[in-house]
């Protein structure tokens, strides 16, 4: 049994991840979307894994995500899994979706805010992974998923995404990187 704390457990992704982890017999602490709690490193202390699925739209995204990452690193938790976003995935080596010239300018600050959090993790010695759902959430759960390259038209259910996250908690195969998660069926 793994001790897991899920930040953002009141949101759809966090709720599903916590439910799958509990169903598999893990000890799960669920922290709602409370930015003040997310910023407290002592909340994650003593857990084996911290899953972060948080957002605070009232704050500057770069400031918020960098602070959240610093808090998780400072907690000393053994493994950090951050729920990322598709635009930070690479379409070619060193080229992210967000870097495309036709990427929507109004979404860029939020995406770069997420990137600031990833940068904090990358500069740390922590064991971390960013798992980014590909494309859009939707469709019917298949009970399966695929990791790696994805297309913006891909769909993924919250339930299948939660399976991917908990599988990675139970059998860590990716470390100190970002990985995309998509449905195993094309365009559900």
Quick overview:
This protein has 188 residues and is α/β, with parallel strands linked by helices. It has one domain: NAD(P)-binding Rossmann-like Domain (Rossmann fold, 3-Layer(aba) Sandwich). The protein is 32% helix and 22% strand.
Provide structural commentary.
The protein is of the alpha/beta class and 188 residues long. The protein has 5 helices and 11 strands. It has one domain: Rossmann fold, CATH 3.40.50.720. A 7-stranded mixed β-sheet has the order 2-1-3-4-7-11-9, with helices on both faces. The chain has a two-stranded antiparallel ribbon with strand order 5-6. Strands 8-10 form a two-stranded parallel sheet. Helix 1 packs across helix 5.
Q: Which structural class should the secondary elements be placed in?
A: alpha/beta
Tell me the β content: 15-25%
Major β-sheet annotation: 7 strands, mixed
Give the averaged pLDDT, no decimals: 91
* Secondary structure tally: strands: 11
What CATH architecture label applies?
3-Layer(aba) Sandwich
Give the termini separation. Answer: 33 Å
Helix count equals 5
- Fourth CATH level, the homologous superfamily: NAD(P)-binding Rossmann-like Domain
Task: Indicate the radius of gyration in whole angstroms.
Answer: 15 Å
Tell me the domain tally. 1
The CATH topology turns out to be Rossmann fold
What is the percent of helical residues? Answer: 25-40%
GO molecular function: oxidoreductase activity, acting on the CH-NH group of donors, NAD or NADP as acceptor
